[in-house]
Specification:
globular; single chain; alpha/beta; three-stranded antiparallel beta sheet; six-stranded mixed beta sheet
Length: about 270
Amino acid sequence: MQASTPIALTIAGSDSSGGAGIQADLKTFAALGAYGASVITALTAQNTTGVTGIHDVPPEFVAQQMDAVFSDLTIGAVKVGMLARADVIATVARGLDRHQASNVVLDPVMVATSGDRLLRADAVAALRGELFPRAILITPNLPEAAALLDAAPARTEAEMQAQGEGLLAAGAMAVLIKGGHGEGSEAVDLLIDQTGVTRLAAPRVSTTNTHGTGCTLSSAIAAGLAKGLALPDAVRAAKAYVTAAIAAATGFTIGHGHGPLHHFHAWW
């Protein structure tokens, strides 16, 4: 009997420059051996220097996309990224319930690498209340974790752990708090759940090509889950993939701002 093809779904915004969002997610799925499907929640006019416009997809059409995908494809994991509005967040939450989605990885995208805000302030509470309980993992970076908790960004690993535990208390099942915005020779992430803390460290790569890093990490985790990996193994594999993609991107000359990762570094 032929093994089923691993399928991962991204529910996120489109990046017209191809480095983040839906485009980064689909590249990551493909690079890691999972078939990628997509539900687009917003169109953005952006490039490596910033976001110049956001066009929201109506909630009813987001629901229609979800119904089309889930009714036909066997989805092994779901990555949820940019959801700019509270009504879209509620729509996605209802869709996940309607289709009994599993292995949901939530990347609480709030601010682009360029500093442009992607999540409306009034949608933060909806993100916590509607999607935290439905996700197997949330993957905030240091500024996002702080914003979700209305706190200052963590500066030490102890503060990172405390904020991760605060997000567990707010309803998350597991938290990967990412230290890429921190300092030091290592980029340290902490995977925190009810059983404890796992420290994941990699050498910090000095580069400006970091556009789409968070999108890529969360979609890499989803790809691993779709392929049957346990959550800790999927997180470790994703961390290794992203670290290599950042290192390989030092040879890229794409755009005039924060360039993209090299998603296909193993191939070309």
